[in-house]
Amino acid sequence: MGEYKNRYKANIAGESYTIIGNETKEHMDVVTEIANRQLEEIKRLSSVNLEQAAVLLAINAISDQVTKQEQLLVYDRLIEEYKIKLEKVDEQKKEINFLRRKLKRLELLETDLLDDNQKEVDPVEVQKIKNQQALEKIQESHLSEAKEEAETLEEKG
């Protein structure tokens, strides 16, 4: 317990307490104010004594803490899902850039072939070029879908 550095005097439900911890005075002022407000609310809404109200307040606080921890776990899972999706998007971007470079080379090859004595283009080469163009469109479609899915997950988070 030697790691705690701050001593804080709190007045909770008319009783004086010394709280030792790492939090600032401002933080503890807020905590004390909320505790007093919630204790009064519990006592006002039910016929319990101060000790029972304090137990109910502790149960509420622990319940809130568990809920927040569950939310953090959900957010952590979403973050991991986003990371995976972003990695996929990056891979798809690299693939698209590769395909664009390849397409550019094929277009240059096609131009060279056409310019070479105005010879006819080999139908196989034409088909290869068309296949590359179709592949690029498919890759761009996948990238678009991945972006939309990432945005949908982000909106849900």
From TrEMBL:
Keywords: Cell cycle, Cell division, Coiled coil. One of its GO terms (biological process) is cell division. InterPro entries: Bac_CellDiv_Activator, Cell_div_ZapA-like_sf. The keyword Cell division applies. Residues 75-156 form a coiled coil. This is Cell division protein ZapA. The lineage of its organism: Bacteria, Bacillati, Bacillota, Bacilli, Lactobacillales.
